[in-house]
Amino acid sequence: MGRRWAAAVCALLLAASCSGSGDGGADDPLAEAPTTTAGSGDAGSSSGYRPATVLGTITDAGIGESSGLAASRRNPGLLWTHNDSGDGPNVYCLDLQGRSCGVWNVTGAEAFDWEDMAAGPGPRAGEPYLYLGDIGDNIDQRTQIVVYRIPEPVAGGAAAVPTAASPAASAPSEALRLRYPDGPHNAEALLVHPATGDLYVISKDAQAAKVYKAKAPLDASTVTTMVQVGAVRLGSGNRGLELVTGADVSPDGRRVALSTYAQGYELEIPADAAFDDIWDRPPVPIVLGPRLQGEAIAYRIDGRALLTTSEIVPWRLQQIERRGP
Fold this sequence. Notes:
- The chain is 4% helix and 37% strand.
- It has one helix spanning 3-15; strands at residues 35-36, 53-57, 66-71, 79-83, 90-94, 100-105, 114-120, 129-134, 145-151, 168-169, 174-179, 187-192, 199-203, 207-214, 223-225, 227-235, 246-249, 255-259, 264-268, 284-286, 296-299, 305-309, 316-321.
- Strand 13 (199-203) and strand 14 form a beta hairpin.
- Mean pLDDT is 86; it is low at 3-45.
C-alpha cells in the first residue's frame, strides 16, 4: 500500500473491529506451539482454525512494511518477506521468531510498488522459485505490471548473514511483464499454483475482487495478457476494510487464503475439482488476530497453518493453525 496511505488505513482499523466474525513437512518447526495472542478470543473462525498466536516480532530494522510473505521451500522452517514501496528490490529472510537470517538484493529488478510474493515452481523442474509482485497501482495508471522471478536463495547456513547495508545478490531475475485484459487495476495479491506454476493476480476492488490468470509457462521475452477467471465477493461490511491485500495457495493446491484489512478468508475445492473452480466457492471467514494494516499472508509449508505479518508497529509474525484435517 505504501506509507502515504498508512495513516488513513490506521484510523479505519482503530475505529473498526479487525477480528471479523466468526503435504509433507510434518516435523516443520513452525508447528511448535507459541504463546496465545492476547485478546484473540476462543474462536479462530467458522472454518475450523484455532486462535491466532504470536511466533515473534520482526527485529530487522530494514523491514518497515512487511507487504508479502512466503514459506521457504529450499530452506525448511524459514520465511521470506519484502517491503512495500519505498525500499529497493530486496527480499528478507526470517526465522520462526521473526529474527533476520539475511537480506538479498534481487539482481536486475526494480521496485516501483511491490505488494505481494509467492513461492512456486518455475522453468527448471525441481527448482524452487520466488515470485515478487510489482503490482501496486494506487491511481490505476500502469499499462503493465511486473512479477520478478528468481531461484530461491540458500539461507540459514554457516556463512555471515547478509544485511540491508551489505546484501547478498540473488541469481539474475526474470521480469514477467503482464497486462490486464480490461485496463489498469490496483492489486496487492499474488498467487502461484504449486503444481502448474500458473500465476494469479487479485485486484483490490471492493465487494468483487477480480481474479486474473497468466497460464504457465510464463515467457519473459514478451508481455502476457492475463485472462479473468473469476471474482471473489466479500461483501461490504467492516467499514470498507474488505479489500484483498494478500493471498496464497495451499501446498496441496486445494485452498486459497485471502487477507483483508479486517480479517482473513479461505476458499476450498474438492480433491477432484479443477483449480479455477475455487473462485466460485464461498469465502469462509478466518479470524487472523490483532493486526494493523495487515497485508501479508502465507500457508505454512505443511498447509496446516496460516502465517501473517503487519505493515505497522509492532510487526508481529503470527500463526493461525487448523483444528482438524
